[in-house]
Each structure stands twice: as C-alpha cells, then as structure tokens.
Amino acid sequence: MSAKEPVNILLVDDQPAKLLTYEAILAPLGENLIKASSGKEALERLLKTDIAVVLIDVCMPDLDGFELAAMIHGHPRHRKTAIIFVSAVHMTDIDQLRGYEVGAVDYVAVPIVPEILRARVSVFADLHRKTRQLERLNLELEDRVVERTSELQASTSRLRGSEEALRESDRRKDEFLAMLSHELRNALSPMRNAIEIGRERVTPDRELGWALDMLDRQVSHLTRLVDDLLDVSRITSGALEIKRERADLAEIVRAAVETIGPGLSRKNQRLHVSLPTEPILLDADVVRLNQVLQNLLDNACKFTPEGGSAWLIVEREGAQVAIRVRDSGAGISAEDLPFLFELFYQSRDASRSQRGGLGIGLSLARRLAEMHGGSLEASSEGEGLGSEFVVRLPLPGPEDGPAPPPRPAAEPAAAAAPKRILVVDDNRDAADSLTHVLRRRGHEVRTAYDGATAATTVNQHGVEVVLLDIGLPEVDGYEVARQIRKTPGGERVLLIAVTGWGQREDLERSREAGFDAHLVKPVDPRVLRRLMEQGPRAVSTAVPLR
Question: Which residue, 19, 39, 85, 238, has most beta carbons within 10 Å?
C-alpha cells in the first residue's frame, strides 16, 4: 500500500440522513467510504472488505454500537481496526469507559464539528496505511532474510566443500611428498653405497676421487632438499615438533661447522668462529638448531666468492644469546630483503644462477628459531657488501632446573668387530650395494629381497644385526621385526630400520614393532658403524627408538 492509496472507512448508522452527513464531511479525505445501515450489514461488510476505520453510532436498534464494537474486535482479522463512536447521549465518563473497554479508540459528540471528525478519521486512516506499509516491509524483509539465509547456507556449504577439498588436496600433497621422498631416498641409497665402494679403490686415481667427491656432494644436496621439502610440509600442516633437551651451544656450533667444512675447503674460504669462554646452555632441539646453523653457514658459503671469509659469532645479550653469521659475499638488495624469509621466494639474480635453491631453507630456519621462542633476522648494506643473519634464542632461567653434568670425554672408538649381518630390502641395488660395503669392512653378510624368510634366516645363522627395509612386498618390515623379536634370541638382535619412510608415524610404528633405531635412506656409513659398535640399546643421532 503506497502513501497515497485510499483506505476503506465503514460508516454505520441506522438513519440514512446521518450516513449522508458523514459521507459529505469525510469526502474531502479521498478515502473509500462504505455505508451500512445496521450492525448486521456492518458485519457483512467487515467480512468481505479490509476496513481501516469504523465510524459507529452508539444508539442503534437490535445491535447497538457497544455490542457491534465488541463483535468486531472479537474477530482475529479486526482486532486492530480503529473504532470511533458517534453519540449525542452516551457521553458520560462511564459510557466512554465502556466504549474503550469494547475497543473504541475515540468518541465524537453530536452535533458533529466537521473539521474534528475529519481530523480524527484522517489520523487513524494514516495510521492504518503506515501499519500496512510496515507489515509489507516486514514481509519483504523476511523474504530477503530467508533468501539471504539460503544464499549464506549455500555459500557455507560451498565453503565447506572447498575446505574439505583443500584438506583432501593437502592430505594428498603430504602423501605425495612422503612417497616422493621414499622413492628418492631409495634411489639415493645405492648411490651413497656406490660412492663408499669407489672410495676404497681411488687412492692412486686422483681424477676418480674428484668425481666421487662431486657425486657425494650432489647426493648430500639432494638428500637435504628432500628433508627440507618434508619439513616445510610438516610446518604448513602444523605437524612439525621440536624435542627440547639441555644442550651446550658450543657443541651444536662445532657440529654445524664440521658439517659445512668440506664446502668451505672447496672454495678456499675461511670461517672465523668466536665463542664465549663460559659455556652457554640452551633448552633446544639439538638436531633442529643444528639444522638452522647449517642452513645459515651453507648460505654464507654459497653466496661468498672463492677465497672469501665468513664469521660465526656467539654473544650473550641479557636473557638471550645471539648467534651471528656474517659473510663477505654477494649481499642482499633492499628490494629482496623484506621477502627473504617468505616460502619459495628467490631473488631474481639467485633464481637465474646456480646458487639459487628451492627458496625454503631460510623460511624453514626462521620457523625453527621461532619454535624455540627465538627469532631470525637478516641485514645487508647492499649488493656486493655481504650480509648478516642473527639468530636470537632465550636462555633458560634458574626455574628451569640445574644444568646437566658434563658429559665424559669420548674415548677413541675401537675398530668394529666383524658381525653377522642380514640385509633385507626389495630394492636389489640398495641391498646389494650395502651388502658389498659391509663385506669389504669384514662383516659376514647375508642378503634377502623379501621379508618372508628373514626371521628364519636370523634364527638359523645366528644373525647379530638386521638392516631391514620397511616397505617390503607381502610381509612388511614391521611384521618382520615382530617375528624376529619372537624367535629364540631375537631380543638380542640389533634391529635397525633402513627405509625411505621418515614421517613421525613411521617412527612410532618402528618403535612399536621392536626396532632399536630408525635410519632414513641414504644412510650415513659413519652413523651405521656407530650403531653397530654400541649394540642393541644404541643411543645416537640416528633416531634411536629404545
């Protein structure tokens, strides 16, 4: 109903002359005037028509105005219809009270003043019009709310579908990366073994020695790329964890420097290391913090020209320790500096040169530093002026407990005694090459390409060490490990998983199956040798499980 649309006004009086009078007075309002000469006729009109205002004479035969008003408001459709009484006699306070009780909204006395009647009827007509407009707007609003709710529900449903699709895509990505790392590690494992075999024969051949060193560097580089990709996947999915222990920072620094040493030597670079005279103890994941320092030192080596220098400086800064890695290399442009730690970011120059990598090392290093409650920042005065990376880590307070007792100095390891070893791997290149390496070191080695006969072989030949792949056909490595542990003397066997699977759930399953250690391919021969020297209850950096 628009603001100008006329409404229906019902005029009720048993005298025709008075009806004509009401009609004449109200005609200027421009509303629809409907006449009824009795209460019965008025009710019939009300049942057929939407009435805004009813003008009723109180004194009518058969059905007076009070009774008619009560009947009108008794009908659900007309409970809000405005009723105006017209009377010449029932004008006392008692009469008016009675009229209001049956639903009247106003009284008009006779003789009627036209202006007063028009004003009162006009007020209630406009009120009815606005009420109808509000009702219509409410209905439109409800329709819009319903429509928007439906759209929102549909959008939410699509969003949930997208989230589920993203989760499924993320799950498949993690599965793909795990499978990719498994396949790559399986391929890298015989390469590493072949390098070890070749090195035992290269004493008189310097060119072949150079070639094997180059292959070793590339295998190490590929292995590190695989590890970084998996770590990034774990970080983005929130699955990466750190295992804190009280550790001497100097030992962590020395291990990182030892690892990066060959790269520095190849480029005739010098690394200057400065450590405080007093030991600095941290609550840190030794492996992960070593990974951070290796990444920074590797970058310093990579972006510093041959013959250049790098510095690793450790300083106390109040309740923190600062580890500074500075170089005299290519430097960082002001354009690249703000984006340096973003995942997969590479500067334009680095992406076009052999120095560029996947763009994940620095992002991973910063995240690992932050997981330790610290930070990693970079600075440079510009291209060609070198760069500096600063790792800041919190120092443990007195409430963190006393420092652990110093470890006794390690005694020189005696040469490993020959052992009876079983190598189980369905990858024949990996199995045969590892068998060859171990035999050349004096061990008695048997080889199996499936897990079906492994437990029997251990029992029949008195095997002391089993190097067991997990992803075997038909009977997997976990089941083989359980079978070995059940055989007589199986609890004394050093049981080592040598596998391309290195996720957290893989380690847990290895522990539950009875493995002593879990090695991820390609295996470092030095780590394997140390494990075999220490025996079934080995504790080493090779992910010991017991």
Answer: 85
Across 212-280, the runs of DSSP E, i.e. the strands, are 245-248, 270-274
Which residues belong to CATH 3.40.50.2300 in the chain? Answer: 8-112, 420-534
CATH numeric code, 245-398: 3.30.565.10
Helices 93-101 & 65-74, crossing angle to 10 degrees?
20
- Rounded to the nearest angstrom, the gap between the alpha carbon of residue 236 and the centroid of all alpha carbons in its chain is 6
CATH homologous superfamily of 420-534: Response regulator (3.40.50.2300)
Delimiting residues of CATH 3.30.565.10 domain(s) in the chain: 245-398
Query: What is the Cα–Cα distance from 486 to 502, expressed in whole angstroms?
Result: 25
Domain 8-112 CATH superfamily: Response regulator (3.40.50.2300)
What tens digit of pLDDT does each residue of 133-190 get? 888 888 889 888 888 888 888 888 888 888 888 878 777 766 676 677 777 777 778 8
Query: Which residues, other chains included, contact 99 with Cβ-Cβ below 8 Å and sequence gap of 6+?
Result: 58, 65, 66, 69, 85, 90, 107
Give the 3-state secondary structure of residue 412.
coil
Beta strands in 176-263 (DSSP E): 245-248
Q: Say which residue the tokens 């222990």 belong to.
A: 245
CB neighbours of 342 closer than 8 A, spacing ≥ 6? 359, 363
